[in-house]
Amino acid sequence: MSDAAGQPIAGANVTISPATPALAQTTTEAVGRYVQGIAATGTYSVAADRAGFGQPFVRHLAISNDRTNTALFLPPADNVIANSSFETGSLAGWQAGGANLSSTAFSGDWAARLGPATTAHLSQTVYVPAELVNPTLSFIYQPDGPATFPDALHLRIAGTNQIIPLNVSGWTHEHLDLTSLALLGRPVTISFDFEPAGTSSFAVLLDDIWLGSVPDPPQYSYLPLLMAPLVAASNSVDRTRFRLPPVMGVAGELTPRGYLPIIRTGKSSDVPTPAPTATATATSVPPTATLTPTATASSTATATATPTATASPTATGIPPTVTPTATATATPTATPTAT
């Protein structure tokens, strides 16, 4: 499910009819995906709608097997194109030449067909309101037959010429951001011009032509892991269960839960801190005696050594009490020689 600019739409309702016992309605996910179950093969109508967008979008599909990538689009709520999906059963509101209606449509029952074998055009003049946000022109087209060079489809608007590629297969969505053209608050003519190559049988189908506001693309913010333990905390290495936060910008979805090995850390109020233990270590240094002889025959030299005690505590928090135990006094007797 996408908007006019191809951006995914979350929370849109998708309804299948006729209703089946399997699943009649679902809602698109954050990236615009949806899954519908059906009870049997057949032709179904798949409708989509969401608040903030335009009229409900309906596709008629013949389903004979599993089907993937079934694109749905929602028009802008302020679309200014008249008869934009040709569901009036006519080309009312358009200036047309060499164009007609086709029952081969992308949505609803009708589409416009340009060609074949002749130059054709389909145009409409509209007023672009000044309050449009990100004004965007979008349309869905499909080649009807094999293209031959130089078959060409031109989109002309406000003096610009966009050449639409025709080497595509199936219905293709295109959009053009009109912001740079400064069209707000004035009229503008939108023209699709088909130029076939000679007598080529090639034609082009057009459907769902919209011009309106497109919201800014979603912004995704990825949050860090929130550690919210669901079991009692431990001070040791622990495999604790945590929840992951939702991813911002993804409506209604949570990232999966997981189990993470972690080492508990935190504030002092969260994890008890054991009281520090002070250990004092005293180191005794043996005394050193220095003898100084005196040239007096009757004198006695007495040397007193003062020991030095060094304490090296290894503690944090409470200062230790250091008691040195080394105290030594040496009294040597020197016998000098007098000359």
- Work out the strand percent: 25-35%
Count helical runs.
Answer: 0
Q: Rounded to an integer, what's the Rg over CA atoms?
A: 44 Å
Low-confidence stretches: 230-274, 280-285, 287-339
Overall helicity = under 10%
- According to DSSP, the number of beta strands is 18
Task: Give a quick account of the main beta sheet: strands, pairing sense, barrel closure.
Answer: 5 strands, antiparallel
Class of secondary structure makeup:
mainly beta
Alpha carbon gap, first and last residue? 120 Å
Order of strands, widest sheet: 5-8-13-10-11
Based on CA inertia axes, which overall geometry fits? globular
User: What string gives the helices and strands in order?
Assistant: EEEEEEEEEEEEEEEEEE
The averaged pLDDT comes out at 74
Would you mind describing this structure in some detail?
The structure is a single chain. The protein is mainly β. Helix content is 0%, strand content 32%. The chain contains no helices and 18 strands. The strands form five sheets. A five-stranded antiparallel β-sheet has the order 5-8-13-10-11, with no helix packed on it. The chain starts with 12 loop residues before the first strand and ends in a 28-residue tail after the last strand.
Question: Mind sketching the topology for me?
Answer:
Layout: E1 13-17, E2 25-27, E3 42-49, E4 57-63, E5 95-97, E6 99-102, E7 111-114, E8 120-128, E9 136-144, E10 152-157, E11 160-164, E12 172-177, E13 186-195, E14 203-212, E15 237-242, E16 258-263, E17 282-285, E18 308-311
At a glance:
About 0% of the residues lie in helices and about 30% in strands. The protein contains no helices and 18 strands.
